[in-house]
Design brief:
Blueprint lengths: L2 E4 L9 H11 L3 E7 L11 H7 L6 E7 L7 H7 L3 E5 L6 H10 L3 E6 L17 E5 L14 H14 L5 E5 L7 H7 L3 E4 L1 H4 L3 H16 L1
D-xylitol-5-phosphate binds next to strand 2, strand 8 and helix 7.
């Protein structure tokens, strides 16, 4: 199933609740929440209180992208705030296996994110435990950056790894995703597209619908 995950980092924070409701209404299946600590990535975004308050705006899946050093420290707090899925960066976890198991034991879905320059070999021993792999198609930390084309090859590689193991793991792509490159990403093997500026710039409801109509073409 193809899933759209609007990243609220691209939203207008003055009217965040209304914007989340708008993308929910338009049919987006996930809400992508970018948590940044100012250490793993240069910027600081938001944390548990904001996620908790948005929980009352929508029942959609809360997909929490932790751009945080040692994110395992926040699993319980994120669960309490309303996270359904926690995605951690391989580069930010000293004990990736422990962190993934911890998320699963908390009853949440677990994802591992790879920065553009990180190789797929870090997935070798944890892939079977994962619900999702996130291929970053920009260097994490900011919205509105340009898509890095070589990451398409990495999507293909991870999809192949999954298929060879008989896994139907979700593959998410995040950064510079637009209606123009969506088709290529789906063809490479991604099934969850994160979109920040391309959803929230202009009319979010219309933009979500545009993405979903592309998905329909591929699901035929
Ligand atoms: C970047 C974040 C992304 C970001 C995407 O570090 O992980 O989720 O919001 O924004 P766009 O879609 O504008 O590249
Ligand atoms: Zn993200």
């Amino acid at each position: 199933m193809l899933i759209l995950a609007p990243s609220i980092l691209g939203a207008d924070f003055k009217k965040l609740g209304a914007q989340v409701e708008a993308v929910d209404r338009a049919g987006a299946q996930y809400i992508h929440l970018d948590v940044m600590d100012g250490e793993f990535v240069p910027s600081i975004s938001f944390g548990m209180p904001l996620i908790q308050s948005l929980r009352s705006c929508t029942d959609k899946i809360f997909d929490v992208h932790m751009m945080v050093r040692e994110p395992g420290r926040y699993t319980e707090a994120m669960k309490e705030a309303g996270a359904d899925l926690i995605c951690v960066h391989a580069e930010a976890c000293t004990h990736l296996d422990r962190t993934v198991k911890h998320i699963k034991e908390a009853g949440l879905k677990a994802g591992v994110a790879l920065n553009p320059a990180t190789g797929t070999e870090v997935l070798e021993y944890v892939l079977d435990d994962l619900d999702m792999v996130l291929i970053m198609s920009v260097n994490p930390g900011f919205g509105g950056q340009k898509f890095i084309p070589y990451t398409i090859e990495k999507i293909r590689k991870v999809r192949k790894m999954c298929t060879e193991r008989g896994l139907t793991t979700d593959i998410q792509v995040d950064g510079g995703v637009t209606c123009e490159n969506a088709g290529q990403l789906i063809e490479a093997g991604a099934n969850i597209l994160v979109a920040g500026s391309s959803v929230f710039r202009g009319d979010p409801e219309k933009n979500v619908k545009d993405f979903l109509s592309i998905f329909e073409e591929y699901e035929k």
